[in-house]
Amino acid sequence: MLLSNFYRFLTTAHSNKRTSPSVLLWLALSLGFALFYGILGLQKAFRSEYVAQDDAREYVFWMQRFIDSELLPNDLIADYFKSITPLGFAAIYKVMASLGINPLLLSKILPIILGLIVTIYCFWLCLEIFPVPIAGFISTLLLNQSLWFKTDLVSATPKSFVYPLLLAFLYYLLRESWLILCLIIVLEGLFYPPLLLICLGILLIRLRSNYFLLAALLGLGFLVMLPYAIASSEFGPVVTAFQAKMMPEFWREGRHPFFDNNPGKFWLIGQHSGILPPLMPPLIWIGLLLPVVLRYSFRFPLVNLIKNKVTILPQIVIVSLTLFFAAHTFLLKLFFPTRYTIHTLRIVMAIAAGITLTVMLDKFFHADQQKRRLWRLALTATLVVALLFYPNFSGRFPTTDYRQSGESALYQFLQQQPKDSLIATLSDEADNIPTFAQRSILVGREYALPFHLSYYSQIRQRTIDLIHAQYSQELTAAKELISKYSVNFWLLESTAFKPEYLTEKTWLKSFQPAFTEALSSLKRETTPALARLTKQCSILETERFTLLKADCIMN
Question: pTM for the whole thing?
Answer without folding.
Answer: 0.90
